[in-house]
Amino acid sequence: MSLTRRDLLTSAALLLASPRGAFAANEARPGGASAAPTADHPYLLHWNENPYGPPPAAREAIAGTIQQTCRYLTPNDEDALIALLAGREGVAPQQIVTGTGSGELLRALGLMVGREGGEIVTADPTYDELVEYGRQTGATIVTVPLDKNLRQDLDAMQKVVTEKTRLVYLCNPHNPSGTGLNAGRIASFIEAMPPQVIVVVDEAYIEFANGPGVRSLAPLLRTGANIVVLRTFSKLYGMAGLRFGYAIAPKALAETFGPLRMTWANVFAAPAVRAALGDIDFAANTRRRIQASRLAITGELANLGLRYAEPQGNFVFFDTGMPHARFAELMKAEHVIVGRKFAPYDNWCRITVGTEPEVDWFLKSLRKVTAKGL
Predict the structure, then answer these.
(1) How would residue 4 be classed by pLDDT, with cut points 50, 70 and 90?
(2) How many other C-beta atoms are found inside a 10 Å radius of the C-beta of residue 346?
(3) What is the full DSSP assignment across 26-76?
(4) What's the predicted TM-score (pTM) here?
(5) Domains of the chain
(6) Could you read off the pLDDT of 133-183 as tens digits, one per residue?
(7) How far apart are CA 338 and CA 120, in angstroms?
C-alpha cells in the first residue's frame, strides 16, 4: 500500500489544525504528556483508548458530581439523558437502551439469543463480547473469515444464514482490523435478511471513520429496520473508565433485551455525557488529531514495506513481518505495550493511536524493532 501526495498533505493539514495546547491537560501520564516511557510506565498502546478525552467540560461535570456519589442516579436524570440521546438520533426515547459501556448491551444481546438456543453469525476474528457471552449462555456460533482486504465478508455471511439464525453481528469499523464497510452495502445486506434475523451493528469507532460511505446505520432505525446500533462514549469522548454506552433499537426489541442488563447508568454519566456532547469543537479536534497520527503510522508502515488493513478506527492492524510474540517482546523492551495476537493473523499486531509523542516514539521503535526482527 502506498501513500499519495494528497495523503501526506492531508496529514500535515490535520496536524496543523489541531490546537495541541488545548489538549495538554488531557494527556495524563506520569511525568506529563511528553515524558519518555520507562519500564515502570510504558506507553499503553493496546486497548484502543483515546488519550485526549474526556473534554474539559465533561471533566468539570464529573468533578462537580463527586459530592453526589452517595446518591443513585434519579429516574428523572436518566429519563432526561435518554431524551437527549433520542433527540440526537431522531428516534423515540423508548428506542434507546443505556448501559455501562456498550459492552453490557452486547452481553445482553448475546444472552437474549443464547437463552433461546439461537444461532449467531459473526466474522472471525471480531470483537467477541457479544459472541462469547452468547456462546456461554447457549447460542450456536457460526463464524466467517475476513476477506482478502480484512473486511467483514457480507456475501459469505449471507450464505451461512439459515432458519436457525437469530442474530448477525457486524462491527463497523471492525475490531481488530479497523476496516470499514460502506453503509449502503450494509443496508442492502440488512434488507436481504430473513425476518427473524436481527442485525447488530457495533459502531464504537464510527466517529473516527473517514472512508467513502463509512457512516452510521442509525438512520435505518427510522424506517423500521430490524437492527440494533450500538454507540459508546469510551472512544471519541475518552470516557472508557466511566463506562457509558447506548443502543438504538426498534421499541419491541429494546423492551426484550433491555431488561437483561445487570446495572444502570452511574451518577457521573448524565452530566458528563451532556457536557461532552456540548463540546463540539473538542470532539472535532480529537478526531482530526487521531486521524492525522493514524495517517503518520500507515505512512511509516508503507515506507517499511509492511502490509496493513485500511484503518477507520483509532488503531492500526498491520503485519509485523515476524511472529507476534517476538514483536511484542521487542516492543516491550522499547517500553511500548502493543495489542494481543488475533488468530489466524499470527504475524499481525493492533496498535492504538496514542498522543503525538507516543506515536513518534512508537514509530522510532518500530524502525528499530523491524531491523532486529529481520
Answers:
(1) low
(2) 13
(3) G---TT-TTPPP-SSS-EEESS---TT-S-HHHHHHHHTTGGGTTSPPPHH
(4) 0.89
(5) 5-55+280-373 (3.90.1150.10), 57-278 (3.40.640.10)
(6) 999 999 999 999 999 999 999 999 999 999 999 999 999 999 999 999 999
(7) 30
